[in-house]
Amino acid sequence: MVGEPGELPPVTAVRDGSMGVYGITVAAELSGLSAQALRLYERKGLLQPDRTTGGTRRYSDADIERLRRISELIEDGINLIGIARVLGLEDDNTAIRGDNHALRTDNSALRAQNSRLATDNAALRASNHALRADTGPRTDPAARPAG
After folding, report:
1. What kind and span of H or E run contains 51?
2. Which pLDDT score is estimated for 58?
3. What three-state secondary structure class fits 62?
4. pLDDT tens across 48-61, in order?
5. Mapping DSSP to helix (H, G, I), strand (E, B) and coil, where does residue 50 land?
6. CA separation (Å) from 65 to 8, 37, 68, 73, 106?
7. CB-side exposure of 43: number of CA atoms within 13 Å?
8. What is the mean pLDDT of residues 16-30?
9. Is 20 helix (H, G, I), strand (E, B) or coil?
């Protein structure tokens, strides 16, 4: 039961892989790289692991995937400057794809709304036309007193 003396509060898990949970030794093992390489890549700006309040690096699942991607690019013969550019372009591409998806979703919703408004507008025009036809002129112009 939550609230018992000495019991820790529940922890909300981050499921998107962005929470730093691995120390540098585990991250190095999971990525297949050395701890020194991880420090170098951080110094070069290729990744930015979370830090605890005490300054200890904490790597996320996303960081591990990024380290694996760095390894692939190194195996392809790309230097660290080139890797920084490739990763930057890949990050930009991911962001653009996300923005594009959001814009397509918004566009679809706006098209549906526009269709509903056009239908409503046509109904209002028809009602307006019917009202004008039903009411006609209120007074007969021929019956006006000459004045």
Report:
1. strand 50-51
2. 96
3. helix
4. 999 999 999 999 99
5. strand
6. 31, 15, 5, 13, 31
7. 6
8. 91
9. coil
Q: What does the alpha-carbon distance between residue 141 and residue 29 come to, in Å, rounded to a whole number?
A: 97
DSSP-based three-state secondary structure for 127: helix
Q: What is the mean pLDDT of the chain?
A: 87
Residue 7 CA to residue 134 CA, distance in Å, equals: 77
Nearest to 65 by CA among 43, 84, 87: 87
- The pTM assigned to this predicted structure is 0.63
Amino acid at residue number 66: R
Q: What is the CA radius of gyration of the chain?
A: 33
With 0-12 CB in 10 A as exposed, 13-18 as middle and 19+ as buried, what is 80? middle
Pairwise CA distance, residues 84 & 47, whole Å: 9
Q: Which residues contact 13 (CB under 8 A, 6 or more apart)?
A: 19
Q: What is the DSSP string of 22-41?
A: B-HHHHHHHHTS-HHHHHHH
What are the structure tokens assigned to 44, written together?
Answer: 């070069």
Mean pLDDT, range 92-115, rounded to an integer: 96
What's residue 133's pLDDT? 86
| Sign of the C-alpha dihedral computed for residues 61, 62, 66 and 68 taken in this order | positive
